[in-house]
Amino acid sequence: MGMLQEFKEFAVRGNVVDMAVGIVIGAAFSKIVTSLVSDVIMPPIGWITGGIDFSDMKWVIRPADASNPAHKIPEVAISYGSFINSIIAFLIVAFAIFLLVKLVNRFYTKAAAATPAEVALLTEIRDLLKTKS
To answer: Concatenated DSSP letters for 34-102?
Structure first.
């Protein structure tokens, strides 16, 4: 019964709930990033590279065979263009999270540095009194 109690304490902790909210928001953000990469970023990159569409890039291992209608053989291919799109999407998400963490850290630093002069003076007096006693 100890393990069940321990799991219950873990599951209702605030960090787990925060993590769950983050995962749900991350999943929704993923759709936005996918659209950003495929609809906004990749067309100019394709234009710069001479009209190459990365999402259509693939290495065909075995072409499709529809000569026999009863036994159609689908194409077997490695779609490395989709992989390139996924890498670009990952880099965009990682950069966005980096900027978000940097922004949050800046707010925490400003909040910590915004100690009034009176409070700092009282803290210094308190520390001096502690060392003398």
So the answer is: HHIIIIIIHHHHHHHTTS--GGG--EEEE--B-SSTTS-B--EEE-HHHHHHHHHHHHHHHHHHHHHHH
Q: Are 93 and 33 in contact (CB under 8 A)?
A: yes
* Whole-structure pTM value: 0.51
Q: List pLDDT tens digits, range 3-36.
A: 888 877 777 776 777 788 888 888 888 788 778 8
- Cβ atoms of residues 85 and 55 within 8 Å: yes
**Residue listed under structure tokens 């966005």:** 96
CA-to-CA distance for 47 and 58, rounded, in angstroms? 19
CA distance linking residue 68 with residue 79, whole number of Å: 26
Tell me the per-residue pLDDT of 47-90, one tens digit each, with 9 for 90 and over: 887 877 777 889 999 998 888 888 888 899 998 988 887 888 78
